[in-house]
Amino acid sequence: MLAAALRTRVPPTMRNVSTHSGKGLSAVLQKNPGDVVITFAKRTAMGRNKKGQFKDTPVDEMMQALFKATFETTKLDPAKLEDICVGTCHPPSPMYSSRAAALASGIPQDVPISTVNRLCSSGLMAIRNIAHAIQSGEISLGMAVGVENMTLNPRPTPSIAESVDKYPQAHDCIQPMGWTSEMVAHTYKVSRQKQDEYALISHTRAAKAMTSGVFSEEIIPVEIRGTVISVDDTIRPGVTMEMLSGLKPVFQDWGDAATTAGNASGIGDGAALCILTTRERAEKENMEIIGKWVGSAVVGVEPRYMGIGPIAAIPKVLTQVGLTKDDIDVYEINEAFASQFAYCVEELGISMDKINPNGGAISVTHPLGMTGVRQVVTGLAELRRTDKKLLCTSMCVGSGMGAAGIFVNEARPLLEAKL
Fold it and tell me: What are the Thiolase C-terminal domain coordinates in residue numbering (predicted)?
């Protein structure tokens, strides 16, 4: 018992550290011993809803496989972990299944674990929680996980008391996400054609990324019941504008009925994780540093227009750390629906050349709890591949919120790493 306590005690030099010493580009890029850094970031391949490769795999089994593959790849002693946070939304008893998965994968009993649910931003919140624990000096090495199996655990129909439901905003915050998509499209005049145009960009980019092997750089193969899973089965090559425009609306009774199966995020299954520590510890223990956590922001917006969350979250996080939108090299903005995505992109005034260069949730799918971590994995891999520096991730959040995070690429370029 005493040995375990001594092992997890945080050295005095790691206490009261801050991720960055000031605001602005130079401060964000500066390297300090107390920086919260990412030493590993990978995801599983993703599976289609009801028909895909994870359709019969519960989240605990998915996490167990991901944990095992991670330790085999990194050679990290799981006993060194001081905390784990899992972002997930809809599985029953997520805390129990997460703890069980950790133990079954060989993580010792004295490594604690928690779960967090802020709907579509849950994975980002898991990273945030571990980063904050490291910043505070409570721990110096932790793991953030995002996982969801929407085949086995679809979105439940939320219910609230009649006395609460009589308030319009309270009523709106529990409505189906498709309804909020139609409300955004109708109120902000996002046409069906525009939605399909943005969807086509996503489908085209994802298909190109898959055929060129781009996603293989961010996917860690996992073994499930004797089968190795390593390729997304969610991407649909060959999507055309004619195909998209020919699809029937999914929500014909709401708004302008412009949301279709082709211009909305996929429902899918998958898991992703990041390992975080201090720069001081990473260098001391010879861990490869691939990224740096800078900061995050969470905002609230009108529940009826849930999808506009990134419009408020991105400027907030940029202001917090003293950056401008032009400082960012790559944006990973979740494509919950083409309606809200198109409106966010155009209101933010960011070039699509910088946003979701390998497609987004419309094409690759959107396992709710996974997405916040998946975007970081994808974004850091893209920065490494293109030898660029700054990533901003963002997403709208069910019930009327938005979230965003800033990360720095510190990985060696792939060509250099292979030499």
Answer: 289-407
